[in-house]
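Lecture notes, continued. The same structure-token format from the folding unit now serves as the input rather than the output. Read the line below as a description of shape only.
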């Protein structure tokens, strides 16, 4: 996604829960069965240039959620209460 590729991922775990988003702009496709993968490939091939560009931009923007900075912020947020003196 960060490299600007339209992603087709397995509909489970991380891709389903965190990585591929469907709103506000779709960032990729999810599939589990061979027919679903075939359908997703056909959809990717059929995308207009403008829709492909929008999807790629949304996917690139979404990967910032997984940056080191975001990880550090989240880590501090959840661990800080463990070290607060009462």
């Amino acid at each position: 996604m960060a490299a600007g590729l339209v992603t087709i991922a397995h509909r489970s775990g991380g891709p389903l829960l965190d990585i591929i988003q469907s709103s506000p702009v779709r960032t990729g496709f999810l599939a589990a069965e061979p027919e679903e993968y075939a359908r997703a490939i056909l959809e990717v091939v059929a995308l207009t240039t403008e829709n492909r560009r929008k999807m790629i931009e949304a996917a690139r923007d979404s990967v910032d959620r997984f940056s080191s900075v975001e990880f550090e912020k989240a880590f501090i947020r959840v661990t800080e209460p463990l070290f607060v003196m009462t």
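Point for the exam: The chain has one domain: 7-82.
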